[in-house]
């Protein structure tokens, strides 16, 4: 990885080719959906019933998470703030416009066109979140060209996986624990496995944080924390399902936050708080409640899931991340396996338990709306009875709780397998010599790809963090570590 890193030709060429392709595809295939088409509206149409007013608030909230939350969170390295935020901006913008097309062919394509509305943008932002989570595994070690290529390849694989799981396996995953968090995690781990750099296990002179960078990163955490209920509830059924999703997400985040503070103080050798814990572990509850977020799991279960997710995430950062780097060639830079992988598995397991415990006594007839695949099939007399109680209830597959649980398990393993294999192949492509990959020495360094201002600090003479604890706790350039 010692080739030229100049972006003068590589980045403009990639952007030019992609934009020409986008223009052609948008011109040929994309049109407005009925809610955005002027021909579909007249004096008898109520403008306030337009889907914009239902979907746009969630779109705006997730937009903040994508561009501000993720952007600030990834700017925690002292000498990589420009890159963390700007590469997030670049990658997210490309991923969303690409996902509108790719997802459009699977979800919104009919009459020869992709019909575009705000809901398309919302779905595309969820696909973008997948790419940004995977980005966390290779933060500081990739060029913008590599990241765009990663998004170019990951979005189609995610869209195909999502389509297969939802259309053929047919699962319940309102908060995206399986299709978003697990997919993004194991795809990112596959990529970072292929981009393994042995010398970085010993630390890097620029792999450190600072007082301002940690504050900026914490701001990203706060934005993600505040808007996570919208993320988990955006695509749930409107009404009581969405109401429960907001409640459960807030309770899970709240319990994981206070648990993170307690664990951070207990396991710090000096009894102090560690910023890396506050920036990441506090968010675990939002992921852990995802698979069961719209179910009748009870508030106390959501609270307990937040504690469980936080605990798993915390110990994952402390013990599992360095183990993966030292023994399995997986350098998980932002610890996505802890915040999205472990918590995603806990969430998926909780979702399966909730499916097995669901009864009509608890849910009433709306159980067949929440667990739509358990609804009676077409022609079943019970379907007509239920439709008289719940107008608009669609025929299901007549699955039992046990059958649906097995399909959930199948979706978990198929998603993990597809994402891991896709990550390995994408990582292989990203290693090609014309991808402007930084050398080991130039990792975590804004100067490689940016013209830096005159007051930019250098890392000359600073101590290289030699242990994992030191790398995650180093919050300043002070080279004296108290004992």
Write the layout of secondary structure elements.
Blueprint: H1 10-29, E1 30-32, H2 52-73, H3 81-107, E2 109-110, E3 113-116, H4 118-137, H5 144-169, H6 177-194, H7 211-233, H8 240-267, H9 275-280, H10 284-288, H11 299-327, H12 336-357, H13 360-363, H14 367-370, H15 381-389, H16 401-430, H17 468-473
Parallel strand pairs: 1-3
Antiparallel strand pairs: 2-3
Helix pairs in contact: 2-3, 2-4, 2-7, 3-4, 3-5, 4-5, 4-6, 5-16, 6-12, 6-16, 7-8, 8-11, 11-12, 12-16
Summarize the structure.
Helix content is 62%, strand content 2%. With 483 residues, it is mainly α.
The largest β sheet comes out as:
3 strands, mixed
What is the number of E strands? 3
Mean pLDDT: 92
Structural class computed from helices and strand pairing = mainly alpha
Q: What fraction, in percent, of the residue positions are helical? A: 55-70%
Strand/helix succession: HEHHEEHHHHHHHHHHHHHH
With strands numbered from the N-terminus, the spatial order across the biggest sheet is 1-3-2
Roughly what fraction of the amino acids lie in strands? under 5%
Instruction: Give the overall shape.
Output: globular
Question: How many H/I helical runs?
Answer: 17
Radius of gyration, CA atoms, in whole angstroms: 23 Å
Low-confidence stretches: 459-464, 472-483
Textual characterization of the structure:
With 483 residues, the protein is mainly alpha-helical. 62% of the residues lie in helices and 2% in strands. Helix 2 runs antiparallel to helix 3, helix 6 packs antiparallel against helix 12 and helix 12 packs antiparallel against helix 16. It is globular.
């Amino acid at each position: 990885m010692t080739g030229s890193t100049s972006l003068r030709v590589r980045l403009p060429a990639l952007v030019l080719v992609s934009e020409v392709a986008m223009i052609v595809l948008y011109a040929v295939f994309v049109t407005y959906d009925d809610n955005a088409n002027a021909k579909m509206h007249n004096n008898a149409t109520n403008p306030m019933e337009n889907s914009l007013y239902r979907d746009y608030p969630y779109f705006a909230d997730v937009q903040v998470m994508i561009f501000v939350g993720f952007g600030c969170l990834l700017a925690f390295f002292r000498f990589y703030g420009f890159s963390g935020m700007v590469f997030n901006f670049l990658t997210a913008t490309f991923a969303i416009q690409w996902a509108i097309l790719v997802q459009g062919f699977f979800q919104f394509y009919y009459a020869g066109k992709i019909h575009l509305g705000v809901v398309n943008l919302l779905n595309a932002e969820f696909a973008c979140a997948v790419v940004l989570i995977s980005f966390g595994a290779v933060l500081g070690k990739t060029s913008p060209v590599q990241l765009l290529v990663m998004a170019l390849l990951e979005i189609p694989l995610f869209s195909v996986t999502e389509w297969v799981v939802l259309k053929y396996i047919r699962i319940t995953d309102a908060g995206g624990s399986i299709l978003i968090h697990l997919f993004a995690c194991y795809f990112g781990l596959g990529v970072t496995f292929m981009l393994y750099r042995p010398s970085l296990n010993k630390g890097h002179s620029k792999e450190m944080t600072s007082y301002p960078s940690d504050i900026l990163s914490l701001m990203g955490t706060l934005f993600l924390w505040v808007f996570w209920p919208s993320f988990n509830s955006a695509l749930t059924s409107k009404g009581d399902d969405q109401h429960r999703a907001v409640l459960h997400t807030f309770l899970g985040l709240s319990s994981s936050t206070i648990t993170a503070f307690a664990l951070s103080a207990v396991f710090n050798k000096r009894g102090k708080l560690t910023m890396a814990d506050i920036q990441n572990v506090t968010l675990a509850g939002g992921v852990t409640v995802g698979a069961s977020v719209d179910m009748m799991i009870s508030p106390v279960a959501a609270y307990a899931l937040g504690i469980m997710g936080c605990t798993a995430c915390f110990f994952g950062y402390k013990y599992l991340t360095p183990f993966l780097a030292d023994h399995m060639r997986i350098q998980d830079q932002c610890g996505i396996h802890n915040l999205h992988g472990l918590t995603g598995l806990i969430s998926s397991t909780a979702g399966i338990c909730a499916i097995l415990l669901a009864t009509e006594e608890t849910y009433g007839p709306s159980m067949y709306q929440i667990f739509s695949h358990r609804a009676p099939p077409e022609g079943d007399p019970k379907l007509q009875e239920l439709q008289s109680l719940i107008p608009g209830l669609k025929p299901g597959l007549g699955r039992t709780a046990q059958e649906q649980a097995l399909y959930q398990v199948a979706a978990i393993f198929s998603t993990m397998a597809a994402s891991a294999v896709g990550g390995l192949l994408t990582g292989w492509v990203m290693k090609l010599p014309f991808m402007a990959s930084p050398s080991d020495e130039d990792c975590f360094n804004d100067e490689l790809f940016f013209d830096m201002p005159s007051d930019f600090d250098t890392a000359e003479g600073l101590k290289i963090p030699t242990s994992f604890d030191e790398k995650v706790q180093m919050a300043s350039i002070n080279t004296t570590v108290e004992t």
